[in-house]
């Protein structure tokens, strides 16, 4: 039995197959993490939109956020995302980028063939000429960035949506970790590079990037899946993969 095992381990085809399986597994982890993050951010976006469009704070008074937080946590006792602070971030998340997601179908085709940069988006938003294609590209990036990254961007650029979108774009483009993003938020990167952007990304983060690493370990994502308390990282990743494998095929 031991002899058979040694022969197998020395077989180059077998070793190559194990290597390829490991790469596929890692890519599946990234896909699962991206899917969890996307679903969570879509929920946050919609919750923020509801608060804004329902004029909830003026409708239900100054204690609305506190009450909503308490009621959501009572209804969802295992959820950790419904703090009053996080609800405010959800509202600001929607407010910050909602101007970039308003679709005007009849004139949108005019910019479909142009390079899609935050500058082009900014110009065409105020001209009421933003297409469904551009909106989808923007959302692809917004929902690819971990929530912790978004909170830092919101803190820094709540009143500067174009700059905020620039740093979302750069995070996805360069695979920035949270610490890398924080470093660049305090520089003049936007002023130096804001007019020299490539198209919005439509691909998954590279599995070797810092962003991909953080997507697979982000505590916001874990809480959203209902996983709380202590956990084994390997078992956690396996649970993510099994939960979303059907959607990823």
For the structure shown, list the relevant keywords.
15 helices, 249 residues, globular, mainly alpha
Helices and strands, in order, run as: HHHHHHHHHHHHHHH
Treating each run of at least 4 consecutive H or I residues as one helix, how many helices?
Answer: 15
Proportion in helices: 55-70%
Flag low-confidence runs: 104-116, 124-128
Structural class: mainly alpha
Q: Work out the number of β strands.
A: 0
- The percent range for strand residues is under 5%
Shape: globular
How far is it from the N-terminal to the C-terminal residue, by CA?
37 Å
Main sheet: strands, sense, barrel: none
The average pLDDT score comes to 79
Radius of gyration, taken over Cα atoms and rounded to an integer in Å: 21 Å
Could you characterize what this model shows?
- The chain has 249 residues and is mainly alpha-helical.
- It has 15 helices and no strands.
- The chain has helices at residues 2-10, 12-53, 56-60, 64-75, 84-97, 105-108, 118-126, 132-142, 147-157, 161-174, 178-185, 189-193, 210-215, 219-224, 233-248.
- α9 packs antiparallel against α10 (161-174) and α9 packs parallel to α11 (178-185).
- Residues 104-116 and 124-128 have low confidence and may be disordered.
Blueprint of the fold:
Elements: H1 2-10, H2 12-53, H3 56-60, H4 64-75, H5 84-97, H6 105-108, H7 118-126, H8 132-142, H9 147-157, H10 161-174, H11 178-185, H12 189-193, H13 210-215, H14 219-224, H15 233-248
Helix pairs in contact: 2-5, 2-15, 9-10, 9-11
């Amino acid at each position: 039995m031991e002899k058979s095992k040694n022969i197998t381990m020395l077989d180059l085809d077998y070793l190559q197959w194990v290597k390829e399986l490991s790469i596929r597994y890692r890519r599946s982890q990234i896909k699962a993490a991206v899917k969890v993050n996307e679903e969570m951010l879509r929920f946050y976006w919609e919750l923020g939109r509801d608060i804004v469009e329902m004029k909830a704070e003026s409708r239900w008074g100054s204690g609305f956020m506190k009450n909503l937080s308490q009621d959501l946590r009572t209804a969802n006792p295992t959820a950790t995302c419904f703090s009053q602070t996080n609800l405010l971030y959800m509202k600001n998340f929607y407010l910050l980028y909602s101007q970039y997601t308003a679709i005007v179908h009849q004139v949108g085709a005019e910019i479909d063939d142009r390079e899609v940069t935050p500058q082009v988006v900014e110009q065409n938003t105020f001209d009421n000429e933003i297409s469904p294609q551009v909106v989808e590209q923007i959302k692809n990036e917004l929902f690819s960035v971990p929530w912790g990254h978004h909170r830092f961007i919101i803190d820094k650029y709540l009143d500067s949506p174009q700059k905020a979108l620039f740093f979302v774009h750069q995070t996805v483009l360069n695979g920035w970790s949270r610490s890398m993003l924080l470093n660049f938020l305090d520089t003049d990167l936007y002023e130096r590079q804001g007019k020299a952007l490539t198209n919005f990304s439509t691909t998954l983060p590279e599995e070797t990037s810092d962003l991909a690493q953080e997507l697979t370990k982000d505590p916001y994502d874990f809480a959203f899946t209902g996983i709380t308390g202590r956990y084994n990282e390997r078992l956690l990743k396996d649970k993510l993969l099994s939960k979303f494998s059907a959607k990823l095929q």
